[in-house]
Automatic annotation (TrEMBL):
Protein name as annotated: glucarate dehydratase
Signal peptide: none
Organism: Cohnella yongneupensis
Enzyme Commission number(s) of this protein: 4.2.1.40
Keywords: Metal-binding
Gene3D superfamilies: Enolase-like C-terminal domain, Enolase-like, N-terminal domain
Taxonomic lineage from the root: Bacteria, Bacillati, Bacillota, Bacilli, Bacillales
Residues annotated as domain Mandelate racemase/muconate lactonizing enzyme C-terminal: 150-245
Amino acid sequence: MKITDIRATTVTVPLEAPLRHSNGAHWGRFVRTIVEVDTDEGLTGLGEMGGGGESAELAFAGLKRYLIGHDPFQLEELRYKICNPTASLYNNRTQLHAAIEFACLDLMGKKLGVPVYKLLGGKVRDRVPFASYLFFRLPNEKGEGEIRTVEQLIAHTRALKAEHGFTTHKLKGGVFHPDYELECYRALAEAFPEDRLRYDPNAALSVEQSIRFGQAIEGLNNDYFEDPTWGLNGMRRVRSMVRIPTATNTVVVNFEQLAANVLDPAIDVILLDTTFWGGIRPCIKAAGVCETFQTGIAVHSSGELGIQLSTMLHLGAVVPNLALAADAHYHQLTDDIIEGGKMTYEGGSIRVPEGPGLGVTLNRDKLAEYAELYKKLGGYPYDRDPSRPEWFPLVPNDRWADHR
């Protein structure tokens, strides 16, 4: 089997409401690039990458000269064709490689008639548990969906728990003053005393603010304290002063950083992302290193549609040391581009797909609809907040939004 073509289509899919974070916001939609890899046997593999637009489509088109005629089963050769470490100093293609790797694994599974998890060692769990992903939100175009007050946050969490069965809740912070977000986090703990919690301000706090915040929540039912401040050394200082496991998806996102963390620990839980790490297989390799050194792992969300969600499910299926619920933005979406619509949560978890390959199929009508919507709306600046057009954050930040 040989690759004959690579096609990339950028889509934008609506969210229930704009999601705020420490660097800005998702402006009411996600932008994703869907990748299709065709072969001489008539099979097509699916991949997905965050963001994109015209630049991503051109970048994938540029890979054709590397990959036309490539055997999708040759995954190590694929890695060096796209991500030679020396060449990557000049052109980092990690996320492009991830999308192509997804598609090759999808092709391998379709060729052999087996789900991807069977190619990766076999599953150890049938379902992958997820945390709710709680954001402060701006009102949508209908004036609905805002989350700003404690009462709105608790009501939203209660509704998610009732609909999807979540028993772990992650609060995305770094938007309002830390004292107010501490109030919100404590209110979650009080409202859901049986459930697990995690807090992530996207590295917006100083080391000193992080220590103060972390010590104030030590008695709560925390999974971990995710990226309260920037940098390995900053996180190491926080870890020395706060009795909560630290976690990151920002400062340990490759094997060099993982080695540095093993030698001088700053992070207790590594959040593996199938895009950031360059594919499912690099995440499995990293999970093996973490298992050896007894470092915790979880699964990070970078704003997935159904194709990437499937990669997260296959990863979660095969990794024995996944002891914590995965993250997903997925429940914030209003729709998806796969047949059958959005995957469903049951008891806070999603069943691992059993179909050949990744186990998902493109809905061509939805792909066309949301590709057209992207052409109409274009992208949006991730690092800007539409409600504060002149604002930009510092690191650490002291320019907080007004919650009143």
